[in-house]
Amino acid sequence: MARTITPTHELTVDAAHLRGLTAYGPGWALMWDGRDVFAAHADVADHGAIFEIIDCDDLTAMHEAHARRGQPADPATIAAEVTGQARTRLSQWRHTLKMMATTGPYTTALRPHGIYRHRDSRPAMLPAAADRHITTDYWIAPTGATASVTMPYFADSTAPITIIMTGPQPPTGEEPAYTVTVPRRTPPAAVAALIAAAAGLPPHTATGYHDPHDTGFPGTPRYIEVEPAHARALAAHGPGWAIMWDDHHTQPVIVRHERGDDGSLLEICTYEGMFNLSGQHDECDDCTTCGLDDNPDFDDIADDMTDILGDFHPGRDDIADHMGATIPYTRALAEHGFHRLFQGCRPRHHVRSVLPLPRRPPHQDQNPPHPRNAPDHRVVLPPFR
Fold first, then answer.
1. Helices 15-24 and 75-90, interaxial angle, to 10°?
2. What is the pTM of this model?
3. Which strand ranges, in their side-by-side order, compose the sheet holding 37-41?
């Protein structure tokens, strides 16, 4: 059964989200899982279990459309429009989710061949006689051709799957270049191999398909890492944001710093903390105010973030347990201007929340100390019971 989105927060897109998506670049999209808005590779939404808000190409097109019409295109205006459109689509998402859960295994099987779901193509339900059919369009990247796959909504249907392929150029009235039908129960990997062969792509054979979701390709391991794109996006988000590891989505996400207060996400690095990575501003007295270098090395910064993630990921469950005990104190102190500096715990299960004291008024302290030279103010709770 496909996972469903159970909203716990209202979907809202900030201007910082859009800056981050632009920094990620083509192939990335903003997603929503019921609580957090985050960026991910666009194919993450192929199964419909995560709601796709907008991808980078569509965001660029929206900016261009506003410019042509002479409409405001400032970040706040675009963010409000994106939020409104997403909430409208979300109201009908449960219906779309059921269709994408049906087509998702086929989309997954086609991807290793270089065949991808059109970003502007979501499954469409078509009535056909006494049965319901779903049609999804795919882009065959190596050739530029298009494959349209129509299948019965119900797995036990006797109606076949119909595959129609057209060339890179729009149809001119002639018959489609290729049309074939296969039984509804044909494994997704077999359907994908048929489409790839018809498109003239290198053949791929498998001796058998062990389950309906088997693509026939060797499994590709998922590495726990932070990509340079994530580092660029964090820099684009600005102060108050942090990059954290989400075990549920098995990828980094960029969220507000306070999102890590309960330990459900593993904090990797804050926007402010980027300034101390990879030798950034080693000689600077106050790197939190002067910003990143003109040409920061995001590859090195991402490598450092990956090292941090590797250090703390094995103990993420312990960190989550300890953070749960600090939440009431963290939330209460935040109301007075004290904020958690990082996640962590001391030996013997003492819980630690490091909180920087508020800055003095400007006339009292014109040159505040660098964070690494500042007094270490700690709140230490009794042993965890």
1. 90
2. 0.72
3. 37-41, 28-32, 51-55
